[in-house]
Amino acid sequence: MAKITIIFLCTILACQSALTEELPLLFANFPPVNYVDEQGKMKGISYEIITGVVTEMGYQPNVRTLPWKRAYHTAAQGKAAILFTFTQNEQRKKEFYFTDMILPIADVFFKKKSKQIQWETLADLANYRIGYTDGYNYHSSFLRAIANKEFIARKSPALEHPELQHLKNLFNDRVDLIICEVNVCLFHLRNNPRWQAVIDYIPKAIGPIRSFHAGISKAWPNSEALLKQFKAAYQKFKKAGKRKAILTKYKAAELTNLIKQ
């Protein structure tokens, strides 16, 4: 009888484990926020925060990565529950419910150290070639400047690692400036000493410091309830010091300290 009881209890535990619901999540490579390293391992500041919160919600995170535009449209169609991490705008709010802030972000211009470029308004950069990524939600002033042809805009597609292509273009003098989230390009420069030796950035934010969020697809079943559940779990996650520990691990204080407003 004891053996039968043990087998029955183990069967119940196995069933409970099997019933843990997977929640499909998507992200695009954007180190050090979320990315796949050279060994194929997913990691990053928001990757650890989002998957940690989702796990504490009682789900098993099922995470995939796609290029940005594909990731966005896949999640917007309800083929994934959560897309992370990205900024808000009015169009995106039509398709996603946004969580509380995951990280602050700031876009700046990177340049060759040999070039003494300064700017107060974007019109000051009229004679410069500036690289940017198609489909990114830059500050409205920058997008207006592109539309008004206030400088020489050089668009690149949002492929797997567009920031690497921008830095390569800058290194090879194909452009004079690139717009990049400060910690993303600093991450890539730290991993490429040749580039780091000749490239730096202008410590002036393009528009105000903004914030990254996770977005819950409105096309996902019971998305409003999922948002409420995420927000509650995220507050507990922060109060327990888990978010702070992740930020410390990735030395993410740079997100705001490196920008002179």
UniProtKB/TrEMBL annotation:
Swiss-Prot/TrEMBL keywords: Signal
Highest taxon above the source species: Bacteria
SUPFAM superfamilies: Periplasmic binding protein-like II
Organism whose genome encodes this protein: Spartinivicinus poritis
Residue intervals of the Solute-binding protein family 3/N-terminal domain: 28-250
Database matches in InterPro entries: Solute-binding_3/MltF_N
Name of the protein in its database record: Transporter substrate-binding domain-containing protein
Leader peptide range in chain numbering: 1-20
